[in-house]
Amino acid sequence: MSKRKVVVGMSGGVDSSVTAWLLKEQGYDVVGLFMKNWEDDDDSEYCSTRQDWIDVVSVADLIGIDVEAVNFAAEYKDRVFAEFLREYSAGRTPNPDVLCNAEIKFKAFLDHAMSLGAETIATGHYARVRQNHERDGRFELLKALDHTKDQSYFLHRLNQAQLSKTLFPLGEIPKTKVREIAAQIGLPNAKKKDSTGICFIGERPFRDFLNRYLPTRPGPMKTTDGKTVGEHIGLAFYTFGQRKGIGLGGSKDGSGEPWFAAGKDIPSNTLYVAQGHDHPWLLCHTLSAGNTSWVAGEPPADGFACGAKTRYRQADAACTFNAAAAGGSGEGLFELTFDAAQWAVTPGQSAVLYDGDVCLGGGIIERAMTGQPAELPPDQAPKQTRAQRRKQAHKPKQPQRASQDEPQTPRQKAALLGAR
């Protein structure tokens, strides 16, 4: 009886390496596949692609599997990076990892694996797949047992066809155990650090990278009441709730509370900042989302009570789903109304729904309804400094020119009074 063939996406990291080893131990015919998704530059200072490939080959030699490399850079640039730039140009903050999973790792990679004769693919993601025979045998995406490492948020756009051909061996294993296995079997990358940040940016400064592809320009930084308090370096470099880089300390009124990015006006290139973590502009009770994707192929029923994440590593927030409430402005829109206000909900990020451990899918946040008024505040004239006020006080007064109707001499005044 021939073994089931599985193609494992191998990145050079410890998670995908242990995934390949576990499947080989379970009797699968394992082939490793290394994906190169970016090639605009391979600056060794920031890009680790060469070393990652070396690590993949070393691991494959150790555990005894074949491995090959495939270039998906063209697909990545067209399906993921172009959308990344469009979202930033529109003033939103995208999450390219979500789109990369749906379009590259579980589409382009899956198609390539099938062309190699594989029955299934596997990755080192921390999530679980379950076939629910009580619901017509449909496949479900579940959180990893280790909730601290769960990555279902990034996988919520996977569909039935993709999940039916996917294995997540690490979904049942704590991260600490994965490290132990790597050390026990002597993997050369057992102590390699986990990758962080956006894959095509690597460790390079985000501002430098974005400026190469998306020209930005400085503009006014204003408070929520319209007062200009500084200048921003480009709207793309700020996301809702951002504190670092605002450049404003506590207020002179003694409150000392920090300032946060709280709004953007694209036409005027204005960044609005709010003082205080719980400022109304930062608190959202309702959001609308579009560009939806549902694991089961259909959305929940209106009025469904569920949990939702509006950013990775966030605890599920209790909310109510309603597709009809957001109707009229586009197809596939939905609204979430939260039981408690959510902080710094950011357009461009994903709103992902959960029923317990089951990930239902979600959509891209289009609007967060906060305390921000429908009309932006009018500009306020900046307050004069003490020196400016002193200079104004000592400035010689110019004689006022009398109007033609106003009497100038006592006689003229008396005549006017008599006339009245």
UniProtKB/TrEMBL annotation:
Residues 285-365 form the tRNA-specific 2-thiouridylase MnmA-like C-terminal domain. Keywords: ATP-binding, Cytoplasm, Disulfide bond, Nucleotide-binding, RNA-binding, Transferase, tRNA processing, tRNA-binding. One of its GO terms (biological process) is tRNA wobble position uridine thiolation. Residues 386-398 have a biased composition (Basic residues). Residues 95-97 are annotated as: Interaction with target base in tRNA. GO terms for molecular function: ATP binding; tRNA binding; tRNA-uridine 2-sulfurtransferase activity. Its EC number is 2.8.1.13. Signal peptide: none annotated. Residues 400-411 have a biased composition (Polar residues). It is found in: Cytoplasm. It is an enzyme of class 2 (transferase). One of its GO terms (cellular component) is cytoplasm. InterPro entries: MnmA-like (IPR004506), MnmA-like_C (IPR046885), MnmA-like_central (IPR046884), MnmA-like_central_sf (IPR023382), Rossmann-like_a/b/a_fold (IPR014729). The keyword ATP-binding applies. It catalyses: S-sulfanyl-L-cysteinyl-[protein] + uridine(34) in tRNA + AH2 + ATP = 2-thiouridine(34) in tRNA + L-cysteinyl-[protein] + A + AMP + diphosphate + H(+). Residues 207-275 form the tRNA-specific 2-thiouridylase MnmA-like central domain. The active site is at 100 (nucleophile), 199 (cysteine persulfide intermediate). The record marks 125, 349 as: Interaction with tRNA. It holds the Pfam family tRNA_Me_trans_M. Residues 149-151, 311-312 are annotated as: Interaction with tRNA. Belongs to the MnmA/TRMU family. Catalyzes the 2-thiolation of uridine at the wobble position (U34) of tRNA, leading to the formation of s(2)U34. This is tRNA-specific 2-thiouridylase MnmA. It comes from Paraburkholderia youngii.
